[in-house]
Every structure is written in structure tokens, then in C-alpha cells.
Amino acid sequence: MSKIIDGKKIAQDLSAQLKTEIAALSYTPALAVVLVGDNPASEVYVRNKVRACTNVGIDSVEHVLPANSSLADLEAVIAKLNNDPKVNGILLQLPLPEGMDSAALIEQISPAKDVDGLTYQNMGRLVAGAEGLRPCTPSGCEILLKQEFSSLAGKLAIVIGRSELFGKPMAQMLLQNDCTVMQCHSKTVGLKALCQQADIVIAAVGRAQMVKADWVKDGAFVIDVGINRGADGKLVGDVDFNAVAAKAGYITPVPGGVGPMTIAMLMQNTLKAAKAQNEKSAATPKQQP
Ligand code: NAP
Q1: Is 281 helix (H, G, I), strand (E, B) or coil?
Q2: What is the pLDDT of residues 106-125, one digit of tens each?
Q3: How many CB atoms lie within 10 A of CB 211?
Q4: Rounded Cα distance, 55 and 58, in Å
Q5: What angle do CA 179, 113, 65 make, to 5 degrees?
Q6: CA 194 to chain centre
Q7: Are 69 and 38 in contact (CB under 8 A)?
């Protein structure tokens, strides 16, 4: 039987550390959350993020825009937040309403305030192995792995999914941890046989219970990123949890695995952005009167 990784508890411990660190600052970090339209799932995510901010002592400001907002309206909001010295982090809640170019809008966010780590500059810094703000969900998965393994070197890791939001940055992080990485997607041939070889299987597809017990080798570390709504309305991941838990060495549940880590990483990124901005402004020589 697998060790069930309690992402909720790990995220709570991390948040408690962040809270202590934030309380000792001479300023209060602030996160601006931009929500467009009235997608119920996005509203829940935003509510959870705002609650997490309150818990750790980060100020949060919500900007809710109607679904029929123009690109210019959104660009104006982002520009205002970029120029507001009181705002340290900007989060554009995805997905945006149909027809809106999320990549173009993300590019409008100042990389210094890009707490989702999705601007091309932060993506490029990740690929180059340079310091920067890194996407929250893969960062959370990296912590879950490192809690169990002192080194990931040489492990064969498979990431199912190649989105900008998760799959691509996750594969980069694993590579930087000296894993041998396979990045799979909808055109991959023989996915099951590839998974059977892997020490680490990370599923981020959005297909309920796709990863079955016979896809996973004994003792593997299985991370389930997927969030799907079952026929009974309950949340299920991309992994057939009960069957895979009987085979794998470690497994993250849905809910209570990766999700809470994503929010904790958002708090961590907001603190990191706030510190960098405050250090930079302290180092900038004051203008002579
Ligand atoms: P996405 O942009 O829709 O990407 C899904 C990926 O899965 C694509 O790369 C796609 O391949 C691949 N795929 C689709 N069908 C496949 C198949 N049959 N076999 C292998 N690969 C297949 O989704 P995402 O944003 O990465 O999110 C994935 C899941 O994670 C969703 O359920 C989402 O809700 C969840 N998620 C959870 C969190 C969290 O905090 N827990 C955060 C982010 C995402 P192609 O590229 O070839 O189309």
C-alpha cells in the first residue's frame, strides 16, 4: 500500500512558516487577483486564494471584470497594477472567457510581479536554470517529491501533459533535479508501457482516472495533478486512486494533494516578489530635492 502524501498538511506547514516570515517584515506584501467573467470554478479558486492571503498576512485586492470586457480594458487594469508600488504580485485567473488571448495578456504582466511564473521572461529563466518566479503547481509537486527523496538524480520521470501552465515547467524542474524526463501528450504512442518504466509518474491531463494500476510500476511515486468532476459531482484526479495506491510507493490524493500546494506556492511567490521589489527600491538612490 502506498504512502499517501498529505499535501494539505505540507501546505499548512509551509504557510505557517510564511506567516512567521511575513509578520517580521516592515511592510505587508500584496497580491492583486484579476478575475474576468463569472466562471463558478474560477470564483471558488479566487476565493481560496484570497483566504490563503488572509491566513498568511498578505493583502489581497480583487479586480472582477465582466466577461464582455475588451482587451483594452484588461490591459488597462494590468498596466495600473504593474505601476502600483503597493501591489507586489499580479495573478490573472485562468481560463479567461472564450476568445480572449490569455498568452498575450499574461505578457502584459511585469515579470517582477508575475507570481504565476507564466511570462516568457520567467519561463525562459526557468529553462535557463536562472533565478525567477516559477509556476506554482509544478513548484508544489517538486516540494512533494523532495520531502520523500533527498535526491531525484537518475530517476526516470514521466510527465503526462505538456501545457505551459504545468507540463512544460514541470519537466524542466525535474530535469534540473537530474531526473531523466519523458514528456508525454495526446500524440504519445504507447503511453502505458512508458509509464510502466517510470520511477515518478505525474499526470496532468484532465481525464478522470486515466492512469490505471497496471500503468504503474511497484513503488513508483505517483502525483495526480488532474481535477475532474465525477458523475456524482465529487472531485477525482487523473489517477485511479484506490487501485494505483495498492501498487505505487507514494501517491497524492485528489483533493488534498497538489491543490493546496499550488496555493501555498502562490503565497511563497508573492512574498518572494515583495522582498525583491522592496530590496530593489531600498537600493535605488533617492532623488535629490
Ligand atoms: P491542458 O492545458 O488541457 O493540457 C492537458 C495536456 O494533456 C495536453 O498536453 C494534452 O496533450 C494532454 N493529453 C490530453 N489527452 C491525453 C491523452 N489521452 N494521453 C496523454 N496526454 C493527453 O491542461 P493543464 O492546464 O495542464 O491541466 C491538466 C489538469 O490538471 C486539469 O485537470 C487541470 O484542472 C489540473 N490542474 C490542477 C492544478 C492544481 O493546482 N491541482 C493546477 C493546474 C492544473 P496535447 O498537448 O497533445 O493536446
Answers
A1: helix
A2: 999 999 999 999 999 999 99
A3: 28
A4: 8
A5: 115
A6: 25
A7: no
Q: CB count, 10 Å around CB of 119?
A: 21
Q: Which residues line ligand 1 (CB under 6 A)?
A: 137, 160-163, 165-167, 184-188, 191, 204-207, 225-228, 258-259, 262
Indicate which residue of 108, 113, 114, 116 is catalytic. 116
> How many angstroms does the Cα of residue 210 sit away from the middle of ligand 1?
12
Q: Is 49 marked active-site?
A: yes
Segments of the chain scoring below 50 in pLDDT: none
Grid coordinates belonging to 153: 538524480
pTM: 0.96
Tell how far the Cα of 288 is from the centroid of ligand 1, in angstroms: 53
Q: How far is CA 99 from the centre of its chain?
A: 24
> Domain ranges in the chain?
22-118, 136-259
What are the grid coordinates assigned to 219, written together? 513503488
Q: Ligand 1 pocket test: which of 136, 142, 143, 163 has the largest number of ligand atoms within 8 Å of its C-beta?
A: 163
* 59 has catalytic annotation: no
The CATH fold assigned to 136-259 is Rossmann fold (3.40.50)
Q: Which fold has domain 22-118?
A: Rossmann fold (3.40.50)
* Beta-ladder partners of 30: 59
Cα 120 to Cα 109: distance, rounded to the nearest angstrom: 10
Asked, colleague to colleague, whether 22-118 and 136-259 share their fold, the answer is: yes
Determine the length of the chain. Answer: 289
Give the per-residue pLDDT at 48.
96
Compute the distance between CA of residue 231 and CA of residue 116 in angstroms, rounded to an integer.
Answer: 31
